[in-house]
Amino acid sequence: MIEVCQATKRFLDVNVLDGIDLTIKDGDKIALMGPNGAGKTTLVRSILGFYHLDSGSIRVNGADPIKERQEVLRHISFIPQTPPPIKLSLTELMEYVSKSSGVNKEYIEQEAKKMDLALEKNLSKPFFKLSGGMKQKMLISIALAKRSDILIFDEPTANLDPKARERFYGLLEGLDPKVTTIYITHRLEEVESLINRKIYMDLGKVVEDERI
Question: For the chain, does the N or the C end have fewer beta carbons within 10 angstroms?
Answer without folding.
Answer: C
